[in-house]
Amino acid sequence: MIGFPTSFLWGAATSAYQIEGSPLADGAGASIWHRFSREPGRVVGGATGDSACDHYRRYREDIALMAWLGINAYRFSVAWARVVPDGNGTLNPKGLGFYDRLVDALLAQGIEPMLTLYHWDLPAALEDRGGWLNPDSAKWFGDYAQVLFQALDDRVRLWLTLNEPWVSAVLGYLTGTHAPGRRGLREAALAAHHLLLAHAEAVTAYRAVGRHRIGIALNLEPQYAASAQAEDVEAAARRHIYVNRWFLDPILLGRYPAEIPQLFGADWPRRALQRAGLIRAPIDFLGVNYYSRALVVDDPSGRPARGRLVKRRDAQLTAMGWEIFPQGLTEMLLWIRREYGELPVYITENGAACNDPLPERGRVLDPGRARFLGRHLIAAQEALGRGVDLRGYFAWSLLDNFEWAYGYSKRFGLIHVDFATQRRTPKMSARFYRNLICRGGANL
Ligand SMILES: OC[C@@H]1[C@@H](O)[C@H](O)[C@@H](O)c2[nH]c(CCc3ccccc3)c[n+]21
Question: How does DSSP classify residue 118?
Fold first, then answer.
């Protein structure tokens, strides 16, 4: 088993709305999650990101924790509405100033910033103009990206355009469980298309001014048939197109999978097919967010992929109910290489929600999370040994934080946060990860 390259990035990941708090401070505009979390019934316990981890004010303390952890990279996202409060127009220097200081403080600790331009928190003012359903959304995003390229490309060398556009489109516009909470197959397909055009707009803009590397972070999930029955095998194949290829193909091949218009039927935006070619703006690396696999049975009523998810009775699950399945990471990484060729890859998210005990005498014993990380790093090492050009791993998440519709009821952090006092307590898994990084991932 070969080890990890010495240049390997050992990181941790977060996102703006989930950790920053102070959503309207210093001239920031509201985001769709600021609005959505205030709508009754949308978030467990009626929680919002008003405080979250108070990272907007405590970022220096958190960077000191990153230094203690020994990570050499940190993935974070920029809140679009801090930098451009109405989404497309006047800049807010104070908003940009926060990220300027954050990047400098990271570099001062020898921590490589990986910046996600968009992690679901669209400016509310743009939602009022149709949001991702408006064909202008790609240009809005390109203009915003340009601002950040100008301001930070002298220090940020790893850029991500979007975090999981599939989730933005499906949970935001089909299931309605995420902001902006709309429900419609046609809207989801249209939003997805505009998100892809926005990604391409930003990559194209970067090619004109950027000196480093840009990619995108996708939630990728291997789909397994729950039985050998033909109808289950076909359902898993359909869901593979729906969850993985719907976005990978346009981004990396410049065309939608042929099966996608069939899955969406009359709800598929016809013009999308002609414009798919615009989406293939070559990227420098792919970000893979891996958590679990899906086990699929045929479900003729399931829209649009006509497949339903099941769990094995003996499956080990995280506190999210997701099956712990490390080999799926190896298989996904190998599949990407077979299907799309040699492309540098970073695991931009991997982690587990666990029912952690409360801190006791400054310790939080979360052996399940340490074991999850270890098993997935072994799976990553397996892929490396079989030729995958894996450049880094970002644990989700540095801190317990606002877990979207679950509010603060699900904890993914390496570091425990007491949201009442904002006290941070590194968990056992943080020490495990720290020790592992110290030895460069040897003897996993
Ligand atoms: O749910 C844990 C994390 C979120 O906190 C991140 O913001 C997000 O990037 C992220 N993506 C996934 C996997 C895809 C997914 C997203 C939302 C709900 C279910 C699955 C898991 N996570």
Answer: E
- Which residues form the catalytic set? 164, 349
CA distance 2 to 110: 26
Pairwise CA distance, residues 148 & 153, whole Å? 7
Cα–Cα distance list, 395 to 322, 349, 373 (Å): 16, 6, 8
pTM: 0.98
Q: Is 291 in the pocket of ligand 1 (CB under 6 A)?
A: yes
Residue at token pair 């307590």: 425
Rounded to an integer, what distance in angstroms lies between the CA atom of residue 192 and that of residue 272? 10
- With CA atoms as reference, report the closest residue to 397 among 4, 47, 156, 116: 116
Q: What's the CA gap between 440 and 444, in Å, rounded?
A: 10
Residue 93 and residue 310: Cα distance in Å, rounded?
A: 49
DSSP secondary structure letters along 15-84: -HHHH---TTGGGPPPBHHHHHTTSTTSSGGG--SSSTT-HHHHHHHHHHHHHHHT-SEEEEE--HHHHS
Residue type, 22: S
Are the C-beta atoms of residues 185 and 174 closer than 8 Å to each other?
yes
Length of the chain: 444
d(CA 143, CA 439): 42
Q: How far apart are CA 61 and CA 68, in angstroms?
A: 11
Span 123-165, pLDDT tens digits? 999 999 999 999 999 999 999 999 999 999 999 999 999 999 9
Distance CA 82, CA 31 (A): 9
The atom of ligand 1 lying closest to the CA of 404 is 5
By C-alpha distance, which of 259, 270, 263, 119 is closest to 193?
Answer: 270
Nearest to 390 by CA among 71, 126, 8, 40: 8
Dist CA 126 CA 63 (whole Å): 32
- By most ligand atoms within 8 Å of CB, the mutation choice from 178, 218, 289 for ligand 1 is 289
Mean pLDDT of the chain: 97
